[in-house]
Amino acid sequence: MRYGRNWSSFRAFGLAFAIVLTPALMQTTGTCGLGDTTLETLQFEVAGENLIGAFDPDQLVYEAVLPEGAESATVIAIPADEMAEVHLLREEVCEAPQVERLPTGGGEVQLEEWAPGHTLVRVFVQAPEGGVDMFGYHIHVIAPVACE
After folding, report:
1. What is the chain's mean pLDDT, rounded?
2. What residue ranges do the domains of the chain occupy?
3. Longest distance between any two alpha carbons in the chain, whole Å
4. Residue 110 DSSP SS3
5. According to the 3-state scheme, what is the secondary structure of 57-94?
6. Which of helix, strand or coil describes residue 148?
7. How far apart (Å, rounded) are the C-alpha atoms in residues 125 and 83?
8. Which DSSP letter does residue 134 get?
9. Helices H, strands E: what count in the chain?
10. C-alpha 136, offset from chain centre
11. Which of 84, 77, 137 is nearest to 107 (CA)?
């Protein structure tokens, strides 16, 4: 099958258009649906101390280094929309993910027994209108490793 000269220029135009749009498409948010999926408050407390520092709703990634001997931490998550639901997913190496659902309007959850090394705690907000942030807020938790 042969294509005319116009067909190849149309394909080149389509490719150029895709290249130009790629940066704009990559900057979209991961929110699906309607409603506010942001948090008003996010804290990661160990022994009464907030390890992630000041919370900014536009900052999605945080890091917390557990003090030696810490066995539990409290995650406090309050959504901007008081009718929204908050879900927490804890992912550790070689372990099945643990899912926690906080009460409507947020609250706190106690996380126990930290494995040495890296654990990822992801916090997602689901708006009452059905909107869900696919990326959520991430807290990279680092527990001390005893080297002998």
Report:
1. 82
2. 32-143
3. 73
4. strand
5. CCCCEEEEECCCCCCEEEEEEEECCCCCEEEEEEEECC
6. coil
7. 10
8. S
9. 1, 11
10. 3
11. 77
Measure the CA–CA gap between 30 and 107, rounded to whole angstroms.
23
Cα distance between residue 47 and residue 67, in whole Å: 10
Distance of alpha carbon 90 from alpha carbon 113, whole angstroms: 12
Q: Does residue 27 come out as left (phi exceeding 0), alpha (psi in the -120 to 50 range) or beta? A: alpha
Looking at domain 32-143, its CATH superfamily turns out to be Immunoglobulins (2.60.40.10)
What whole-number distance in Å separates Cα of residue 81 and Cα of residue 36?
6
What does the alpha-carbon distance between residue 92 and residue 127 come to, in Å, rounded to a whole number? 27
Name the residue with higher pLDDT: 3 or 79: 79
Distance between CA atoms of residues 139 and 115, nearest Å? 15
- Tens digit of each residue's pLDDT (9 = 90 or more) over 74-116: 999 999 999 999 999 999 888 888 999 999 999 999 999 888 8
101: which residues sit within 8 A by CB, 6+ positions away? 85, 86, 87, 88
Tokens found for residue 55: 């919370």
Model pTM? 0.75
pLDDT (average), residues 54-63 = 95
